[in-house]
Amino acid sequence: MNRTHIGIFGPRNAGKSSLINMLTSQEVSIVSSVAGTTTDPVSKPIEINGLGACVFIDTAGYDDYGMLGEMRVTKTKEVLKRCDIAIFLIPSTIFEEKDKLQEATKWFTLIKERCKAVLAVNHFAERTHEIGDVKKLFGVNEYIDINIANNKGREEVLKAIGFVQSQYQQDLSIVTHLVKPNDTVILVMPQDIQAPKGRLILPQVQTIRELLDYGCTTICTTTAKFEQTLNGLKDVPALIVTDSQDFKTVYELKPKESRLTSFSVLFARWKGDIDEFIRGAEALATLNANSQVLIAEACSHAPLAEDIGREKIPALIRKKIDANIKFDIVSGNDWNVDLSQYDLIIHCGACMFSRTQMLNRVKDAQQNKTKITNYGVTIAYLNNIIDKIIW
Ligand SMILES: Nc1nc2c(ncn2[C@@H]2O[C@H](COP(=O)(O)OP(=O)(O)OP(=O)(O)O)[C@@H](O)[C@H]2O)c(=O)[nH]1
Ligand SMILES: [Mg+2]
């Protein structure tokens, strides 16, 4: 989610596990001279001074082979889509082998398409290559020479991560681009059966925090108390942010002057590509009895009755468009499905994902020529409210 995801990629025996251990100063991953020691990805959440909350992820070598090897490479590719930053580690010995060098440049290109990449060369012995050659070959201005045996390069890698972080970190706001300091904002947050026991969900917490920091009077209420809350106010609220499920009720009750949006529409903009999601929602009208829709939920929760993704949205679509539309569901990081078989993907608000991960999912959908939208935009569209809300 908000942790910076940093993946370590490279061929087998490049020293990837040695590097995760060096960077975290812990024995996170098993190191051995046997090629293919790391199989499943190994994650280590850690707070690093200067970088904040991070997750380092060690992966299996991209050059693994055989049936199991290919499955590991698939997993490695999946990790790539979750990472904000990739450290691409190659052993210096690779410069002696043309084929391996070519494969490495191919992988580095793939990595650069998906996230910000830092190139590192692990020196097992003497330098065997020219600095200029490496930069030219991989199309980079900078790379880092490391030698894990001597603990050389740790500070340089952490510095490079910090530099990349400072460059890509979004200055997008969740909500404050829609208001002014001192405005009154009402947040409609029904704490229904799906709300986690005893706490608020992350999008609500993050929105409240941003509004408070910005100097807005921030009023939280439930749908049941919304009208009463409005009646108790002296001034008309500048903005109302509602749970998408209650768009219709809130729209009908709100003062004309108050602008309306929802948490998941705000998050569609903040975490994903709102324009693409609006285009995706327009595809709803083209669905028919033969259509297949994929519902993608980011967090793996035990589904409850009236689950928004599993029950409410499919029921709404079947009622409004066609009763025979088929729905499949993927949860958490499961995304290794043939997206091209679907007419539409409807994604959750992705509060548990990073923006990079969500944008990579949009990219996957585009590459498969499948439209993608999200829960909030879908509900707004089906309730004919899309042109009455802002984001
Ligand atoms: N001399 C020397 N050996 C190193 C260095 N870095 C790693 N090694 C050794 O190289 C071997 C492979 O290291 P790992 O960290 O397990 O490599 P890996 O990339 O995780 O390998 P897989 O998990 O098999 O993909 C181990 O025997 C390490 O001790 C280094 O800088 N110098
Ligand atoms: Mg390893």
**Looking at CATH, which topology of the domain at 4-168 would you report?**
Rossmann fold
Q: At the fourth CATH level, what is the homologous superfamily of the domain at 4-168? A: P-loop containing nucleotide triphosphate hydrolases
Strand order of the largest sheet: 2-3-1-4-5-6
Terminal CA distance: 21 Å
- Which ligands appear in the coordinates? guanosine-5'-triphosphate, magnesium ion
Number of contiguous helices: 13
Weakly predicted, low-confidence segments: none
So what's the CATH class of the domain at 4-168? Alpha Beta
- The coarse overall form would be elongated
Walkthrough of the structure:
There is one protein chain. 39% of the residues are buried. The chain has a six-stranded mixed sheet, sandwiched between helices. It has 391 residues and is of the alpha/beta class. It starts with a strand and ends in a 9-residue tail after the last helix. The protein contains 13 helices and 14 strands. It binds guanosine-5'-triphosphate and magnesium ion. Magnesium ion binds next to helix 1.
Give a short synopsis of this structure.
The chain has 391 residues and is α/β, with parallel strands linked by helices. Helices cover 37% and strands 19% of the residues. Strands 2-3-1-4-5-6 form a 6-stranded mixed beta sheet, sandwiched between helices.
